[in-house]
Each structure stands twice: as structure tokens, then as C-alpha cells.
Bilirubin oxidase (Pediococcus argentinicus), 484 residues
Amino acid sequence: MSNVYHDYFYDKNGFDNLDGGYFPLKHPDVAEKPLAIPAVLKPDQVDGDDVYYTITAQEGSSQLFQGVPTKTWGYNTDLLGETVVLETGKTYHVTLKNELSEVTTFHWHGLNIVGPFDDGGPHAPVYPHGERKITFTVDQPSATIWLHPHPCPETARQVWNGLATPVVITDKYEQSLHLPSEYGVDDIPVVLQDRSYYDNQLDYKKSYDVDGTLGEFPLINGTLKPVFEVTKPVMRLRLLNGSNRREWRLHFSDNHPFTQIGSDGGLLPEAVELDHLMLTCAERADVLVDFSDYKPGDEITLQTDDFSFLKFKIGSFEASHINLPSPLAKLEELTPDSDETSFHTVMSGMDDEVRLDGKLFDMQRIDTKQQINTTKIWEVTNTNDMEGGMIHPFHVHGCQFQLISRNGKDVYPNEHGWKDTIGVNPNETVKIKIKFTKLGVFMYHCHILEHEDTGMMAQIEIFDPDHPMTYKLLSMDDMMHEKL
């Protein structure tokens, strides 16, 4: 295999394992278990191209250890959620129910959807035993996105308790490629998280770190010490860093190469061959792994740094390979309206000193505006020092964007597709092209969950000059307390 990339691309000086609060993962004292594969959410009704779903945030319990079950939260299940499948061109009518004892929201991370209410940020509270109905038509290409709560300042704790689930968008073009597509067999989500437990229970306050909360044990698809039986020669892994803080520096135990075919917003224009891959918080990567060279009974593990956390046991299958076209996908190349930077946002600080543009988040303040269907150049800067600083993952709601450069140089080889989250190295400026096709008020923020809860977040209004709109923006008190 030619031109295989062997490094993580990101600046090693900013890795989380150099942070003073960092601790490495440990193996829990439990037996190996089959990797849990989230069930696929079943529609309530299908009427042509109209599909009806109900998604419920609920409390549950999970038998993670011997003895007392662990109290967990999930969407339509005890922990994490059922995979939501969307198809480009179809319209979805979704009832969002809250059976928790506190307010939550349902944020569609990576979905091009109107804001601020349907997008599910903090302006879209669903109060205990209440519900919210939204309708949207999917108009973006196939991708792996996700659903998680966003009721700042409680986002981090609610995700820690278990609220997060994959969302898979499919389209006819990707289906024509005949990629691995048998869900749970050769096409699987891999939700990467870490958790600590005290007498079998989660205790977010005890685990809390203002600079991003880490867990002792890897929790993969809600499974401790997971094993997956490989029964097909080529597998598609839909990797999602769903951790509050931890970066995942992925490679196989024998440095077996794999092929990245997708990033946050869908297929890459060209497949990229790698044997190392780093995901900062909320980033996704779709990779193909060819196990044809292994024999039945072999075992290979996926590792982060040099820690094994997911074992693949090779079963029996007939060797075969996938021939990917070039280009893999034809992306709409965004053309900025001007070569000049129209907006510059600055992430600064660490711990409780984190700021976005020198300010803390205010739910009733619009920080910047952009006209709908215009393509602008943004610069995103991380002012942390190269020595002792940290990578800040930067996320924008309600759109996908394209990268132009990192500190004036080319972007990483696997960053030429659609993105909604990028890791920005210390002392680095990333230049992006960004276009919003939906109206609304949207968040942009650091996706270390404790940082966004602290206030490292701001709001942009996407407007149509011919059809001005006004939005009733809630205060944080309004969001947290239902007005009766």
C-alpha cells in the first residue's frame, strides 16, 4: 500500500496527555463482553417521503460491573441511544420527549437545520415530562453525525450520564459505491468515551475537571472491555469521539493500515490511507479496515496511544477487497464572496479562564451575523502557548464548512472534506470557508464540554435581508426553569 500516513498530524506539544490533569486509561476489572451495537430507531410511521420518529431522553440502568447496576441515561434506551437513520431528500417529523427529572435539549450535531429551536441548542429546552416537535428535510450528503444534549451549563454532566447517539445520513450516491452496509456486521458505529465509577456509579461532581473531565476506563458504545467478532473481510467503522475531554489517538496493535473515507460531514473527495488517526472531541471519521490478510482465530486490538481498548477477533470469511473510485465524492467547492477574512474568532485560556473573543457566553447576546447563502472566510485562532497549551476543538452549529489553511500552510491530508468540528493547535490560526443555508441563531464554541459549559461559546445570527426575523432568545434562567 503506497502513501500511508504514519502520524497524527496535530501538534504533539498540545496533546492532552501533556496536561497536568491528564491520567491514562486503565482496564476495568470485568470480563470481556461483545461490543454493544446500538439498535436502529424504528419510525412511528412512514408516509412516502415523510418519516415520523419519537426520541425520548430517559433514565435507566446498565449492568456494567458485577453487583449493583449503574444508573445511566439514554435516548429510548438505558445508555447512549438508538441509531437514528436519515435519508437525503426525506422529511422527518420528530417528537422529542423528556422523561428526565430536569430540563434537557436535543442538539443535532452536524445537521444542516434551522436554529435556534430545531437545532436543539440551549434555546430549545424540553422540560421534565414535556415534549417538543420539530420537522426538517435532509438536504446534505451521507454522513455520520450525532445527537446529544446542549442545556449549558449542564451539557457535560448530561453527556457524562449517557445521553449521546449516532445519527447516520444516507444518500443514493453513497449507496451506489457498495461500501460495507450491513449494520452491526460490517458497518458499525464506534462511540469513543471514557468514564470513572464509584461503587459502580457515575459521580460527575467527583470526576469533574474544569479543564475537561476524563474517565478512568474506556467505554465504547457503552461497553467496558469490548470484543467484536469479524465475519466480513472489510469493515466500516464510524468513529465518533463522544468524550467530554479525551483525545483519541487511534492505531491498531500491529499498526495495520486503514482507509479514511469520510469526515464530519460526509465522504472525502479522495480516500486517505493511514495507520494513525487522531480525533479531538466531537470529531468523526469513517474508516474502512481490510481484515483479509488475517486468519481465523487471530486477534487485533484498536488502541489509543499504546492502550488497547477494543479487540477484534477474526472469524471465517472469504477474502475480498473494495475498489474505491477516484474521486471518491464530488464535493461542492465553496467559493468565498471575497478573498478577505470577514470574521476572526479567538479561543483563549485554560481551566476556568477560557474565553471566546475575550468574553463569556451570554444567551441573549448576538456576537456576529452572516447573510444566508453567502460564503465567507473565517479565521479561528487558539492563543494558547505552544509550550503548555492545549488543542481546542472548535464547532459551529447548523452548517458544514471547508478548511483553507493551518497557519498559512496546507490542511491535514484527511481534512479536505466537509467539517463541523476542527482541532485548533496552540498558537495556530485555521482559515475556513463557511456557508449557512438555514436561517437562525447558532452556537459556535469549544467542544471540550466543560469549556462550553464554562462559557467558551458565542452566537451567530444567519439573516435574510429581504425577510428579517426576530428571535426570542432565552436567558439561562429561562432555559433552566420553566415559566408556568
